[in-house]
Amino acid sequence: MVIHWGKIVLIMSLLLPGSVSFSQPTGKVNEELSIPSFVLGRSVKYAIYLPPDYASSDRNYPVVYLLHGYTDDHTGWLQFGEINRYADKAIAEGTIPPMIIVMPNADSSWYINSFDGKEKYEDFFIREFMPAIEKTYRIRSQKRYRGIAGLSMGGYGTLIYSLKYPQLFAAAAPLSAAVYTDDEMLAKTAGNWEGTYAQLYGHNLKGRDRLNTFWYSNSVLKLVENKTYEQLSEVRYWIDCGDDDFLTRGNCMLHLLLTEKKVPHEFRVRDGSHSWTYWRSGITDALRFIGESFHQ
């Protein structure tokens, strides 16, 4: 009798629990792409995540624009947020639908046009970046298949774009968004103002001079205050901020304003601070919320 030990080992390995591991499909990541911008007069880098079946299918995909925070760049969500790993897992488990995730570099622009017109990042993003991305990749370019999310400065950008251009986004998920009240802007030290906010709203501004027309045209709370229930309800909102975050107050004020206007939205205050630990633990829920908008 001839004993085929190789076959026996193979059969036993299939029968023993936990003895066989199946690798999870992984998406494709490219973090060193760029797009030329006529508006900005320079090229802008971006990173992109393509779902596992992108290369093997002919289908078009929904898209989420994922915005980085202050002092970070387009690689932040990959390097520190491990967004590709979380997206792979969520897609494999059916938590989120297969989606393309695009991460542009915004430097320290705060995703808006500056008061003096020297930096027009908002114009670039809306008029050049999104159209170019959605022509380059197989993306469903209707509002119902487009979402936006981001952390801190990127959370601010998420709210600014979804409030100013509700016709473009089905859902928005700001994490630890940089939402400031008027009082908080007045309380900024001269050094903090000049180093971070002067390039956006005006140099050497003190006291109530900071609360100028340009500030109010880019204040999340003022934009919400000036919009109707119908206008605010055009986008589904997921708002998430840690209980130990220095931005909790502004996010709570945003929640209260939306509540007063009876605008449906999701508001989460979880245990945590302004950190990647917090954002990594929240990004899957944020993407799941956005992904629900892509369903009938």
pLDDT below 50 for ≥5 consecutive residues: which ranges? 6-15
* Overall pLDDT metric: 93
The 3D shape can be described as globular
CATH superfamily of the largest domain: Alpha/Beta hydrolase fold, catalytic domain
Please name the CATH architecture of the largest domain: 3-Layer(aba) Sandwich
Q: How many individual β-strands? A: 8
> Given the helix and strand composition, which structural class is it?
alpha/beta
Q: Remind me, CATH topology of the largest domain?
A: Rossmann fold
Helix content: 25-40%
Largest sheet: 8 strands, mixed
Can you give a write-up of this model?
The protein is an alpha/beta fold. The protein has two domains: 20-180 and 220-292, Rossmann fold; 185-218, no CATH class. Helix content is 39%, strand content 18%. The chain has helices at residues 5-15, 76-79, 83-92, 121-136, 153-164, 182-186, 190-201, 213-217, 220-225, 229-232, 248-260, 276-292; strands spanning 28-37, 42-50, 63-67, 100-104, 146-151, 171-175, 236-242, 266-270. The chain has an eight-stranded mixed β-sheet with strand order 1-2-4-3-5-6-7-8, sandwiched between helices. Helix 3 (83-92) crosses helix 12 (276-292). The termini are far apart. The model is unreliable at 6-15 (pLDDT under 50).
